[in-house]
Amino acid sequence: MYSFASISSFSSLPPSSLAIGRHVLPYPVGEHGIARYTMLHGPRQSRSRHPHHVISLQWRDLLSPHANTSLGRPIRVNINIDQDLKPCVEDERAIKLPKSYAMNGGDGNYSYAQNSSYQRGAVDAAKELIKEGVAAKLDIKQLSSSSSINPFCIADFGCSTGPNTLLAVQVILEAVEQKFKSEKPTAQLPEFQVFFNDHVLNDFNTLFQSLPPERRYRAAGVAGSFYGRVLPKASLHFAFSSSSLCWISELPEEILDSNSPAWNKGRIHYTGARKEVSEAYALQYAKDLEAFLHARAEELVGGGLMALLVPAVPNVMTSSETTIGTEIDLLGSCLMDMAKMGSFSEAKVDSFNLPLYFPPIEELEASIEANTSFSIERMEILNNPPKHVAMPSVRHRTLFFRACFEGLLENHFGSHIMDELFERYSKKVAQSSFTMNPDNDKSIFMLVLLKRKSESSQNDSP
Ligand SMILES: C[S@@+](CC[C@H](N)C(=O)[O-])C[C@H]1O[C@@H](n2cnc3c(N)ncnc32)[C@H](O)[C@@H]1O
Questions:
Q1: What gap in Å lies between CA 363 and CA 230, rounded to an integer?
Q2: What SUPFAM superfamilies is this protein classified in (predicted)?
Q3: How far is ligand 1, taken at its centre, from the CA of residue 158, in Å?
Q4: Which of 1, 16, 159, 241 has the greatest number of C-beta atoms within 10 Å?
Q5: What does the pLDDT look like over 272-331, one tens digit per residue?
Q6: Distance 287 CA to ligand 1 centre (A)
Q7: Is 337 exposed, middle or buried (0-12, 13-18, 19+ CB in 10 A)?
Q8: What separation in Å is there between the alpha carbon of 218 and the centre of ligand 1?
Q9: Distance, CA of 57 to CA of 77 (rounded, Å)
Q10: Residue nearest ligand 1's atom 23 by CA
């Protein structure tokens, strides 16, 4: 069923505005030129009884053959919506997540570089599995039949500032070199090109300053969201991502909507919240993972490999039963305490949510299996050091959170509250018998090794 929205006086609108019907919406266009609008069924008073429809229009779509486009004149756009409705544009929620955010830069006390030993544990635990995967599954013949393998291109998606990305790249590079040597002992090794990807605000300077001088690869930074394509089509031979596919691209709109059952009042995450909240997060995660796999499928050549180390939770657990959840809950409760003391309003806390989701294994598997561009070569739980080993003290736990979340928190609450917030957090963690009890830490990493199908085999698959 189609509904229509007309875009009036397109050319006279400022570039970041859009009109639907009579309504000119002066809202910013999203990261990829996507304008998001909440469309409500029916009149305002019946809001709560009707579901919301969030539609995405891309400027590209507005100018597509489906749109009756003629710049400067009103145009009509078909919007595919699953029910007949008279759209009534009520309001637009600004996307609460900044377009770009990053882990703490530099190499100081609060930096990601100094406080990512837990994430490093995942890379360490995956080393042997990656080597085995490359030895068994990297098909040099297949790769060279579909593309040039000189240079051999590797990319790390969500690299941050190091040092973990450098370790991962070294492991991959050595495994690939070994494979070339065993298959073509007399041939010269290809050159290696490594692309380091992260958000534009990532501190790439720190990363590039720490590149080992004796490295056997050329390095380039590729800034931009990995939920879209960041590299040319069919240009990549090995994709990697670690501890990054838990950051969702945006917050589900309904968790910020006081009229929605998914409104996440007084909390900063889905853990311990109503099931509607976690369902909204899960839906966003599934959409994002699909977008990630789609983008990587375009970038990887047929036969190319992708290794993902994905933070997750066991199936039997809800994430509120893991320390991932309870630690975030503790941070949220510190913010609420500060709001109650007048540092800022409670509404300020209501409008802050962390864009993080830890999928239960089954959910992750289902999303990956749904993608037809890759074959699943390996999927298993990593045997990485648990939190109480990687971060034995309350101080470590606090710095781990500060390094990851301070940027987002500062953006919303201001930098002046950070010291107090993390002091409070540190005290709460120390007092929490649950959080510091190793038996309660059920957070896991999944290793997923995928192989890009060649176009022909993809067409053959059912
Ligand atoms: C916890 S860090 C992991 C860094 C590194 N891979 C490691 O193992 O230590 C997650 C990184 O993913 C990045 N990230 C999150 N969402 C992203 C996106 N949509 N596009 C690119 N990078 C993203 C963050 O900025 C952050 O640097």
A1: 26
A2: S-adenosyl-L-methionine-dependent methyltransferases (SSF53335)
A3: 3
A4: 159
A5: 888 999 999 999 999 999 999 999 999 999 999 999 999 999 987 666 666 777 899 999
A6: 18
A7: middle
A8: 21
A9: 9
A10: 158
- Which three-class secondary structure string do you get for the chain? CEEEEEECCHHHCCCCCEEECCEEECCCCCCCCEEEEEEEECCHHHHHHCCEEEEEEEHHHHCCCCCCCCCCCCEEEEEECCCCCCEEEEECCCCCCCCCCCCCCCCCCCCCCCCCHHHHHHHHHHHHHHHHHHHHHCCHHHHHHHCCCCCEEEEEECCCCCCHHHHHHHHHHHHHHHHHHHHCCCCCCCCEEEEEEECCCCCHHHHHHCCCCCCCCEEEEEECCCCCCCCCCCCEEEEEEECCCCECCCCCHHHHCCCCCCCCCCCCCCCCCCHHHHHHHHHHHHHHHHHHHHHHHHHEEEEEEEEEEEEEECCCCCHHHCHHHHHHHHHHHHHHHHHHCCCCCHHHHHCCCCCECCCEHHHHHHHHHHCCCEEEEEEEECCCCCHHHHCCCHHHHHHHHHHHHHHHHHHHHCHHHHHHHHHHHHHHHHHCCCCCCHHHCCCEEEEEEEEECCHHHHHHCC
Q: How far apart are CA 254 and CA 332, in angstroms?
A: 19
Q: Which tokens belong to 415? A: 């930098």
Name residues contacting ligand 1 (CB within 6 A): 102-103, 116, 119, 123, 158-160, 164-165, 197-199, 202, 225-227, 242-244, 247, 249, 404
Average pLDDT over the chain, rounded to whole?
A: 81
Peptide bond into 392 cis (omega under 30): no
- pLDDT single digits (tens) 169-201: 999 999 999 999 999 899 999 999 999 999 999
The label of the residue with tokens 């060279």 reads: 144
CA of 31 to the centre of ligand 1 (A): 16
Spell out the domain ranges in the chain.
Answer: 2-91, 118-317+355-384+442-460
* Rounded-to-integer distance, Cα 130 and Cα 447, Å: 9
pLDDT given for residue 350 in this prediction: 95
Query: Which residue has a Cα nearest atom 13 of ligand 1?
Result: 158
Tokens of 340: 């109650």
Q: Across-strand partners of 37?
A: 55
Both structure tokens of 33:
């030129």
Percent of the chain with pLDDT over 70: 76
How far is the C-alpha of 17 from the C-alpha of 10, rounded, in Å?
9
pLDDT for residue 54: 31
